[in-house]
Amino acid sequence: MTHVGYLIAGWGITMGTLAFYAVRLVRRGRELSGRVPDAHRRWLEDQGSDDA
């Protein structure tokens, strides 16, 4: 049971790094999406458009 600390630390560092990256990625995406002009926001089409 001498390696349990290393296993916990390894998993903790890995999961912490991935969580930090995910949060940073989402925040950056939200920031950048606010900079896109309304005319170029293709993902925000109105409800009635069925054209693909």
Number of helices: 1
Overall pLDDT: 85
> What separation lies between the terminal Cα atoms?
58 Å
Q: Give the overall shape.
A: rod-shaped
> Helicity range of the residues?
55-70%
Structural class: mainly alpha
Rg result: 20 Å
Strand content: under 5%
Low-confidence stretches: none
The main pleated sheet reads as: none
Q: Order of helices and strands, N to C?
A: H
Number of strands: 0
What report would you give on this structure?
With 52 residues, the chain is mainly α. Helix content is 58%, strand content 0%. The chain contains one helix and no strands. It has one helix at 4-33. The radius of gyration is 20 Å and the shape is rod-shaped. The termini are far apart. The model has no long low-confidence stretch (mean pLDDT 85).
What are the key terms here?
single chain, 52 residues, mainly alpha, 58% helix
